[in-house]
Amino acid sequence: MCGIVAYVGSRDAAPILLEGLARLEYRGYDSAGIAVAARSQAAGTGTGTGGGAGQAALKVRKSKGRVAELAAQVPARFAGRTGIGHTRWATHGVPSDANSHPHLDQSNRIAVVHNGIIENADELRAKLQADGVVFTSETDTEVLGHLIASLATDGVELEDAVRAALKGIVGTYGIAVLDAQQPDRIVVARNGSPIVLGIGEKEMFAASDVAALVRYTRQVVHLDDGELATVRADGFNTFTQEDARATAKQPSIVDWEEASYDTAGHAHFLVKEIHEQPASVERTLSGRVDERFSTAHLGGLNMDAREARAFRRVKILGCGSAYYSGELGAQLIEELARIPAHAEPASEFRYRNPVIEADTLYIAVSQSGETYDTLAAVQEIKRKGGRVLGVVNTVGSAIARECDGGMYLHAGPEISVASTKAFTSTAVAFALIALHLGRVHDLSPADGQRICAGLKALPDQIREILNQEKAIADLAAKYANHTGMMFVGRVRGWPVAREGAQKLKEVSYVHAEAYPASELKHGPLALIGPDLPTVAIVPDDELRDKNLTTLGEIGARSGPVLMVGHTAPDPKLAEDTILVPRNEPELDPILLGIPLQLLAYHAAVALERDVDKPRNLAKSVTVE
After folding, report:
1. pLDDT interval class at 52 (50, 70, 90)
2. Which region holds residue 608: left if phi is over 0, alpha if psi is between -120 and 50, else beta?
3. Does the pLDDT of residue 518 top 50, yes or no?
4. d(CA 577, CA 468)
5. What backbone phi and psi angles, to 5 degrees, belong to 121?
6. What Cα–Cα distance (Å) separates residue 26 from each residue in 184, 261, 611?
7. Which of 64, 503, 613, 619 is catalytic?
């Protein structure tokens, strides 16, 4: 959700912080701010200042609104070689200048930025107010600044004060702390919300997302939960929150290019990422299709054939689009491997005190690898002795590190809040997993070869669909002004319908509901009429005739129908049709979802929405 950037080195921090925050805009936010520490002959300027003549001073600028608005408020002379920045997504208090981060203590010595939620903030606030502390915001984060300041007495190192303050915190956090009296360092900490260190030449960076770092360095270190780091220009050291024990961290190399964070001539990141799907699917498949044995080569699962064969069922966990991709994955696994499979929202899973079975394989899905609800579900499974794999896009992310094995998607950075290429690559990853499990069980070599050929055909077939963009854009403009739309599909088409409805409502704000086509007559049919169009997913499979009967029921009630499928129906059954190329029946849902992405995008454009940053949403949800 929120974004953190920090810098310490020989350059002025403010331009680096602002550029890093701009890179994190895709995560979703409502306000932004920066603080820098510098030696000054006069007290610092800005919202907060500290120190006297010749003392270190904090310079702060923060405001409600976009990073560009913040940048316009930062004067040209805003010197300081150590600094922290933040983009906030409101959880405590309305979006406002006062509630924006960084938050300072009363003496304006300590500045804090924070992602996450402090669950005992009210209790801590009451205690601090009883001690005479005056608060200037409604946020939970402000208590941290005051707590750290109360412990950062003369001679106390900043990292010791931060560690002591965190002992009294209940909740999740990724934080960066700046001390005007110790401007040679920044202290960062993680518990449930990501923090990444970036290693430069005689300079160091920290952020909540590698997107803020790739312009400056490819060497990164991911903090684990319960870990802190002191970051100086000449290096860093990491240690545990509990007992200050030093931890050994090895840098990893980020393979994402800086150019991935530019629109490359497209109007929005969303349409750019839709068009990147042929290449992203090729990367997901690269080196994993084993045609010799008609299977998938998935060494990252870390289990041999005997272990794979021992699992009697599969449970897939994810949130939002990751959950819908899990539903598609469960369908693939049941069809190809003949193992019972089921997808469930990770956000609900751990709260129902789930029974963790030794013969169940659990799979956690997350584009960012940091989705808090999914991470918590993984930890619950492992706590109870379950085997869990991860399907994630971000190398080195928390879920990837927590799982027993899994697959990286290699889809590349996804900047737009609405997921497209990560969703499609996740569906392809599940096809590979289903193929692998199927060949371990009873899937024949001939059927395995058939699926291998189908997987290899996907990139070119996606390109074929993308070539229809103009026609799909025209249909989007036609339907965009309706106040709502219904999406329906059966069996293989059902997850496609759910994701299609999700995309439309996310980016266009048009109300969209998805139902199994077979369920329409059990209630939702009451909504059908001339003002409610239906998008129907109708592949040429064994259920086509039943799906066409459903279209007839809708037409009989004067409901407009847009059909997505392989063969045009009788014109009386569908007012409009989008045709997609036919693959193997099990893989068809991967292709059927692509036109719905374009439909949602162009509907949002027609309605003049903020396509890449839809209201109230964030890319990476790192709080409950």
Report:
1. very low
2. left
3. yes
4. 12
5. -60, -40
6. 30, 10, 11
7. 619
d(CA 559, CA 571): 14
The pLDDT, as a whole number, for residue 566 is 97
Average of per-residue pLDDT values in the chain:
92
Q: 252 is written with which tokens?
A: 């990893």
Rounded-to-integer distance, Cα 420 and Cα 423, Å: 5
Enter the tokens of residue 229.
Answer: 């780091």
Residue 2 bears catalytic tag: yes
Catalytic residue among 2, 319, 403, 452: 2
Distances (CA, A) of 565 to 427, 516, 593: 18, 16, 10
Question: How far, in whole angstroms, is CA 13 from its chain's centroid?
Answer: 27
Separation of alpha carbons 393 and 425, rounded Å = 9
Q: 105 is written with which tokens?
A: 């203590």
User: Under a CB-based contact definition with an 8 Å cutoff, are residues 494 and 334 in contact?
Assistant: no
Spatial contact of 624 and 192, defined as CB atoms under 8 Å apart:
no
- Quick check: pTM over 0.85? no
Lookup: tokens for 403? 């799982």
- Angle, vertex CA 3, rays to CA 46 and CA 403, nearest 5: 155
Residue with tokens 């929405």: 609
Gap between the Cα atoms of 551 and 517, Å rounded: 9
| CA atoms within 13 Å, Cβ hemisphere of 108 | 20
For tokens 């289903």, the residue is 434
* Each residue's pLDDT tens digit, 242-283: 999 999 998 988 876 666 778 888 999 999 999 999 999 999
Work out the number of other CB atoms within 10 angstroms of the CB of residue 5: 31
